[in-house]
Amino acid sequence: MGEKAIKDKCGVFGIFGVDNPAEYTYLGLHNIQHRGQETCGIVTSSEEKKESKGKFKQYHGKGIVNDVFNEKILEKLNGRAAIGHVRYSTRGGSSLNNAQPIIVSTKNGVIAIAHNGQFANYKRLKRELIEKGSIFKTTSDTEIALHKFSKSNADSIKENIYEAFKDIKPSYSIVMLTKKELIGLRDSSGVRPLVIGYIEDKDAYVLASESVAFDIIGAKYIGEVKSGEIVIIDDNGLRREQLFNPGKQQRCIFECIYFSRPDSFVFSKDITISVARKEFGRQIYRECPVDADVIIPVPDSSIDAALGYSYESKIPFDWGFVRNHYIGRTFIQPTQTKRDVGVIKKFNPNKSIVDGKRVVVVDDSIVRASTLKKLIKLLRKFGAKDIHVAISCPPYKYSCYLGIDTSEKEKLIANEKSIEEIKNFIDADSLHYLSKQGMLDNKYLREGGFCTYCFDGEEVIKRE
Q1: How many domains does the chain have?
Q2: Which range of residues forms the domain containing residue 141?
Q3: Is 367 helix (H, G, I), strand (E, B) or coil?
């Protein structure tokens, strides 16, 4: 997404059964850093023993993992298990007070939790808890689950978690940590990803938002946590149980279009998501063929779609934009003026590639369109003859409420303008979107069960 008007989501990681869990967690978080850059944190635990009383240790900071943690900090976070989190603010502000994992002491024991997603009924649940006397430390919806966990009178950790989440609506993919267990939980609709890995030489299990977190630590990808499934990892190994009956599947299609790293296994048929994105690109050319000289992506998130478009059309792919990777993300700039300057600093047209050429610009989505408009202006300045735009998803019309921080729908250009009007606004010679059916028919994705609210406004999981 060239303009990055949608902020990256949160990412979670957990590991059990290694001597230096914080170091593994640091590395895992590094590989899912694209899912959040505002705050990050690690919590470790050690089981209570006669010779050494077990305890939790934690460290949180603002910014990216490499800047927040160093070797000295990681050495202090000793234990036998850990969970970590990279965050951006969907529900709750970006202050350090809202950083995760959150750790609390309850009548049911000390527990730490890290959450990817957003509860659809958080407003009602929080109101009810406050009316009953609950006091909230953060503005994050994740704290609701901890309050409900602390009120449970069940006899086991699994039953306590059931009591905590039975009334919570998706979306959530959760990792939790006690003194004895690492726990993973995914909502019954499977909105957000959660996967399992295994480090054979350590006999250690890992949980993460994406499988790329396993690659850096030498863990083998086992598969997804199923919708409504709880995974409990302790000294006896891994135990999987269906805690909630699966509901109507509502996997986030935007994980496949943009959010997840292309080398991750997310909602796909045992192939990395890059293959599915190439198919999006192939399909948009089948639907809307254009005669051109060169195909160029808006790097980096649309590279695979542009390659697919090139493969299908037989039009050469090339690097029409050179991206400066040392420039921060444009969406975090507080004003439109600063975002505009950031775009020009971040992307520079390659004149030798575009000068005098009929160009197809492939991007994964259009949100506000302000960035794409500026990129097209730059291409014309650098000599592009004709500029056609291909978008590898349908028009983005509705603001997500299940864990993606998008602009209000009034600021989403496809909610306010027709495709023709958007084409004129960005000053393109043509503009083509992938159809909704073409997107869902992708043969490399799991059949059916995707949330398409951001495109069609169909609210399957009702807000409360």
Answers
A1: 2
A2: 11-247
A3: coil
Q: What is the mean pLDDT of residues 67-81?
A: 96
- Write out the two tokens for 19: 């001597």
40 is known as an active-site residue: no
Give the helix/strand (H/E) hosting 427. none
The amino acid occupying position 69 is F
Token code pair at residue 282: 């192939």
- Which band of pLDDT confidence, cut at 50, 70 and 90, is reported for residue 51? very low
- Statement: residue 336 has pLDDT above 70: no
| Contacting residues for 275 by C-beta, under 8 A, at least 6 apart | 268, 444
Here the tokens at position 274 are 């890059």
- Cα–chain center distance at 250: 15
Predicted confidence (pLDDT) per residue in 355-378, tens digit: 999 999 999 999 999 989 999 999
Residue 183 lies in a domain: yes
Cα–Cα distance list, 202 to 18, 28, 38, 54, 273 (Å): 7, 16, 32, 21, 28
Q: What would the two tokens of residue 35 be? A: 């899912």
Q: Above pLDDT 90, what percent of the chain? A: 81
Same structural domain for residues 214 and 157? yes
